[in-house]
Specification:
Layout lengths: L12 H12 L3 H23 L2 H8 L14 H13 L9 H14 L5 E8 L5 E9 L2 E3 L8 E6 L2
Antiparallel strand pairs: 1-2, 1-4, 2-3
Helix pairs in contact: 1-4, 2-4, 4-5
């Protein structure tokens, strides 16, 4: 299965690293969030190596907290930080949509935002099956650049 929205050429890694660093260094909260994402990326990568993705999702899925009136970092900024980290495509930091969805789901739940993770599939030709994972908030795609055009195959609810 291919998650086609996440391919980055290796020649652009340095540029992405510089853009990520400039985004993160603007505020201590952004830096803490980037470190938090890297930590949970490592934990989740280890969990899925020795368990299943759904088992790792259950272990990482926190109980949602009460919504904050002013979140520390807006969800759009958190998604941008995670997208830039994943775009580096180094070692365990792979640009995979399901890792993005799971980490954003965890972060948002801790901020009091209740989302669900949706997995979908789509035929991209005669023999190619394409898949994608995204977040939904109130039944609508959340933090996606464009609406996903996939048939829903699995929904992860807490």
């Amino acid at each position: 299965m291919v998650c086609g929205q996440w391919h980055v050429q290796s020649g652009r890694r340095r540029q992405l690293l510089m853009r990520t660093a400039s985004l993160v260094w603007r505020s201590p909260r952004s830096l803490r969030l980037a470190i938090w994402f890297l930590f949970w990326l490592a934990v989740f990568s280890l969990l899925t190596r020795f368990s299943s993705v759904s088992g790792g999702m259950k272990l990482l899925s926190p109980r949602p907290r009460r919504p904050h009136s002013h979140p520390a970092i807006p969800p759009v900024t958190a998604a941008l930080i995670l997208d830039r980290l994943l775009s580096l495509d180094l070692w365990f930091i792979r640009p995979l949509c399901w890792k993005r969805a799971i980490l954003l789901h965890r972060h948002l739940a801790l901020e009091g935002v209740r989302t669900r993770i949706v997995f979908g599939v789509n035929r991209a030709g005669e023999s190619i099956l394409s898949g994608h994972a995204w977040l939904e908030l109130d039944g609508h795609p959340f933090l996606e650049k464009s609406p996903p055009d996939y048939r829903v195959s699995f929904v992860f609810l807490e």
